[in-house]
Amino acid sequence: MIREKINEPILGYRTRGHGFAQGRRTTIKAIIDARTAGRWTPDEHDNWIRAAQSRLESLRGKPEYRRNQCFVAGRMAVLRSSWARDYSTEEVLPEIHFGPWSVGTVLNLLGSMLVALLHPFFHPEWLSIAGSLLVIAMLFCAVMAALDEQRKKSSLDNKNIVNYANPVGEPLQCRKS
Amino acid sequence: MSQKLRTVNSSNIDDRTHGELLLAFHKLDQVKPDAKNAVQAIELQSKISRELTDRGWTLDEEEEDWFLPVIS
Description:
Radius of gyration of chain A: 23 Å
Structural class of chain A: mainly alpha
Order of helices and strands of chain B: HHEE
Helix content of chain B: 25-40%
Largest sheet of chain A: none
Distance between the termini of chain B: 32 Å
Structural class of chain B: alpha+beta
Strand content of chain B: 5-15%
Number of domains of chain B: 1
Number of helices of chain B: 2
Oligomer: heterodimer
Largest interface: A-B, 30 and 22 residues
Strand content of chain A: under 5%
Shape of chain A: rod-shaped
Distance between the termini of chain A: 23 Å
Radius of gyration of chain B: 13 Å
Shape of chain B: globular
Order of helices and strands of chain A: HHHHHHH
């Protein structure tokens, strides 16, 4: 799961160069490690942002500046995401908790099929109540699953990321991986 | 975001968080080689470097000397 999370592309940044991808992967790994150890806090988050900015400042005017911009862009993409702003220690990977809603939808669907199959053996009134409850539960789970999916998609999306790593507005030319 | 930056020095390195060490390390990059405290800056930087290495991070030269966690 951690590997999937690390390698999952950010929307709109699938084709960025090696530095961007490396900055992103390593930052996700570092946050996961810090969260697992209960050390991921708003202050620590802020230190990380300031450290990346400081590094970029000290490289300004040097040949490796542009190369590092790509790395910082990847790092900032993660640091500025809503995923990085989750300071809980229990939910190491928020996506893990998205699953049950989808599972719930499938279970409800199976329950409905079971009710339909067994209907000759039960009282129609009970079947009607059971069926209605299942439909309500199924709709609820489907809506929750859709909302979670939406949250998952947007959690690492940051369209303004280039601005953080590229304050002077020059186009980023990251090396292809 | 609240900011409680704690000073990093030779005697408290092992007590500081990754973020604090990283920030200090990169801030020390900005000390000019001819500055009065340049020698102390280099010494502190190498101590921070050793501490981060002890914590399982590597100084990735391919990535222009960024400290990175090891991804297995």
